[in-house]
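Translate structure to sequence.
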């Protein structure tokens, strides 16, 4: 069998460059669902990861220092890291602009937030071309090129324009919008044509897949052949496979961590500081798609409608900072803090504050301690591709006494709807009713629901997701990329060991 590597192409590398106050550069682990999901699975499989390091090319350290940092990152991640360097203007117009002011809100059905600035598109093309050139430089014809998410839709098209022959797959981590919303995109034809340059395109849910196929049929009138688990789009010059591949988590990692003494001690401390009440948990990145203000107002409405909840429940709302330099996100943070202050000011009694607000990123052990401790998880985005928080909460709930309240607009609802309590985040009254019902649910029903949720997520974990995509794309699975002792090239062109 010929040697074949996995080449993951994503906007961000699994490491981030950070400059300390003393001017010294350091690398830190990357964050976000993609890194969390793929990092442990792909570790030490002799593959490569191509991405941006989160800094402007004009501010990056000099060549030898940068190369040393990349080698350190490669040793720590177990994957060859290949950086793509972006200028400040490219970051502003490709990343903050086209990706996050156009595609992000549009694909989440929030088109009123879109800024269709015509100057963004050329930079989106330009940066996608840079990523394609990095693929040309760092892969060979035996490698499988797996492109990730909405920032890099055009990479497959650019590879074709460069004349590069590679087997390619693409996975969209966010929702794909229905036709009436997608039509508002000025570059709708270019985006659809680019997606159909891949051999395989994957979506989170069947709903996203149907939306995509509906757009293809409406705008191109291509024939679509339905197969058992996949659709085949028949183009005049070829075909593209499309399917739904719901992403998941490393179930064992969260379950094992929840059983450690360190997490048990943290969990005990949480309840010790918030005694004699049930704890409701919300964990979200700061983003308008997460529906945090809607959730807070629904919780306040529950306290108003059901006075028996007072002094018996506390909402712990964790907000992880994100895009703090963007004005809209700063305004959202202020709105959240204003609502928290108003609710606490209205309902607080001696010895009880209804909302415990945390604005920071939590270390993994502390996050799992909250998952393990809290009786209810309130996961209520306005729209989400999947939402891995819901799955992480269940995997960490080893005592199987938790309740998952989940937005019907989260991709996870398509898998977990039978045993989660589904809500419409726009329906404040029914959200309040569901919170109250969850607080009163009997232990035997809680346990039965959570046991089934955990069993399902364990069976459909991150390995299952990777294997299902690879099997559809190249008739292989992760076992065909066996783990081995990882080596990185030394500066003199030889081979250096993984040891420091």
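Result:
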């Amino acid at each position: 069998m010929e040697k074949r590597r996995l080449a993951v192409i994503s906007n961000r590398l699994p490491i981030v460059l950070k400059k300390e106050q003393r001017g010294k550069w350091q690398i830190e682990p990357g964050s976000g669902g993609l890194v969390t999901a793929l990092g442990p699975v792909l570790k030490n499989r002799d593959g490569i990861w191509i991405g941006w390091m989160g800094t402007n090319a004009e501010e990056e350290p000099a060549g030898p220092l940068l190369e040393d940092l990349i080698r350190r990152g490669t040793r720590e991640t177990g994957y060859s890291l290949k950086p793509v360097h972006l200028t400040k203007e490219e970051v502003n117009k490709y990343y903050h602009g086209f990706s996050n002011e156009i595609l992000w809100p549009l694909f989440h059905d929030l088109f009123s937030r879109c800024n269709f600035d015509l100057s963004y598109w050329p930079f989106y093309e330009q940066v996608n071309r840079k990523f394609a050139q990095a693929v040309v430089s760092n892969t060979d014809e035996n490698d499988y090129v797996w492109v990730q998410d909405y920032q890099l839709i055009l990479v497959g098209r650019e590879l074709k324009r460069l004349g590069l022959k590679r087997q390619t797959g693409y996975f969209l981590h966010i929702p794909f919008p229905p036709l009436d919303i997608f039509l508002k995109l000025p570059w709708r034809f270019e985006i659809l044509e680019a997606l159909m340059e891949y051999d395989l395109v994957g979506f989170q849910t069947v709903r996203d897949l149907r939306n995509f196929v509906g757009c293809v049929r409406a705008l191109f009138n291509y024939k679509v052949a339905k197969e058992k688990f996949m659709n085949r789009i028949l183009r005049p010059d070829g075909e593209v496979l499309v399917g739904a591949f719901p992403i998941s988590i490393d179930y064992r990692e969260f379950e094992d961590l929840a059983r450690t003494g360190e997490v048990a001690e943290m969990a005990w401390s949480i309840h010790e500081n918030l005694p004699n009440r049930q704890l409701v948990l919300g964990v979200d990145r700061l983003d308008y798609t997460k529906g945090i203000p809607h959730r807070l107002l629904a919780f306040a409405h529950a306290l108003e409608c059901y006075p028996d909840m007072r002094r018996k429940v506390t909402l712990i709302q964790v907000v992880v900072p994100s895009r703090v330099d963007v004005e809209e996100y700063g305004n959202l943070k202020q709105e959240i803090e204003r609502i928290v202050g108003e609710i606490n000011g209205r309902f607080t009694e001696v010895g009880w504050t209804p909302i415990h607000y945390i604005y920071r990123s939590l270390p993994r052990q502390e996050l799992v301690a909250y998952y393990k401790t809290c009786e209810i998880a309130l996961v209520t985005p306005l729209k989400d591709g999947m939402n891995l928080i819901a799955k992480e909460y269940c995997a960490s709930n080893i005592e199987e006494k938790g309740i998952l309240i989940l937005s019907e607009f989260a991709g996870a609802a398509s898998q977990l709807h039978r045993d989660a309590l589904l809500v419409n985040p726009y329906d404040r009254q029914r959200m309040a009713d569901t919170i109250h019902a969850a607080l009163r649910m009997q232990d035997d029903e809680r346990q039965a629901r959570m046991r089934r949720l955990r069993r399902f997520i364990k069976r459909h974990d991150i390995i299952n997701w990777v294997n299902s995509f690879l099997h559809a794309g190249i008739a292989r699975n992760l076992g065909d990329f066996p783990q081995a002792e990882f080596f990185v090239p030394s500066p003199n062109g030889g081979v250096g060991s993984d040891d420091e």
